[in-house]
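Give me the fold.
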Amino acid sequence: MEGIQAFTGFPKEGLGFLAELKENNYREWFNERKNDYQEYLVKPALSFVVALGKRLTTVSEDMVYDTRTNGSGSLLRIYRDIRFSKDKSPYNTRLRVRFWEGPGKKKERPGFFVGLDETGGGIHGGLWMFPKRLLEKYRKSVLNNELGTRLVEAIDNVKSFKGYEVGGEHYTRVPRGCDANHPRAALLRFNGLYVSSPKIPVGVLKKPELVDVCFDHIQKMMPIHEWLIQLLG
């Protein structure tokens, strides 16, 4: 894309900025160093978005990556929503990037979330929380013999790789009217479905090979992602 350079890794200055932000999470400090944020984090982050985004479209042409920086694109805003939080720190201290598949709101589409800071990085794939309209459809799919079996196979496939964890369990009981002894009862207690990668070492973040590492993790997560895409139809 015009004006966006090839990804060469996140510079040490950018990772150092995030480390310092943890100790100085207030507006005056950030505003004095906003140019550093733009130069050492936003610019390489957009290069990363394009590089990994292009790779992901080779897997699915419906995968979306977006270089807007206003919160609507792949790069999430550094500003925290503190309206309903006890923690009034104004800034996120991790750089966060999202890729998603298909039309609609990115939070409601299956995709991949990359987070990183000066200690390393990681990837989450799936849906952190099902929209209300999708939760009931998910539960019916779990109870369906064919779809439920496919989900178990997808989870087993992903967990066969060392260090990958599947999450989303939220409720202590199965939904009312469901058999607590059903062979897939545990999955009925989920209110989202996602997989987390092993930690990405900080040294990798500084290299262009980060794109290859992320793409490899995402390929291993694909069985769950594809099941969710089918769920959404």
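The two ends are 31 Å apart (CA to CA).
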